[in-house]
Write a structure and sequence with these properties.
A two-stranded antiparallel ribbon has the order 1-2. The chain is elongated and about 125 Å long. The chain is about 65% helix and about 5% strand. The chain has about 120 residues and is mainly α. The longest helix has about 50 residues. It has one domain. About 0% of the residues are buried.
Length: about 120
């Protein structure tokens, strides 16, 4: 298989005036437009990648800070104190109302079957 590459000049000269073939000018315009579109797309893609990186970095930092705060002793003591203060006020009233005066057998005793 033989590939032959023929290069035709885009610009031809006749005297002191240069001539560009008509199909070449439309080709140049189309390629310039497609290059401009690619450059604009690349700029938009770069901006979106920067925004995406900033979002991932801020979410990672927020998750790390939240994890450190939740696992700290200060957070544990704060939550425990809040729960105990809410429960201790109502615990005495609840226990007085619901505790029975007397109890029965804790486990019912069934007679064993006779053979």
């Amino acid at each position: 298989m033989v590939i032959c590459l023929v290069i035709k000049p885009i610009v031809t000269y006749k005297g002191d005036r240069a001539r560009i073939r008509s199909n070449t000018s439309t080709l140049v315009n189309e390629s310039a437009l497609s290059i401009a579109n690619l450059i604009m797309f690349q700029k938009i893609a770069n901006v979106l990648s920067i925004v995406s990186f900033l979002m991932v970095a801020s979410m990672s930092a927020g998750a790390f800070i939240t994890y450190r705060f939740v696992t700290s002793e200060q957070f544990k003591s704060r939550v425990l104190n809040q729960i105990l203060s809410e429960v201790s006020g109502s615990m005495g009233k609840v226990l007085d109302k619901q505790l029975p005066k007397s109890t029965g057998i804790s486990v019912p005793i069934n007679s064993l079957p006779k053979f």
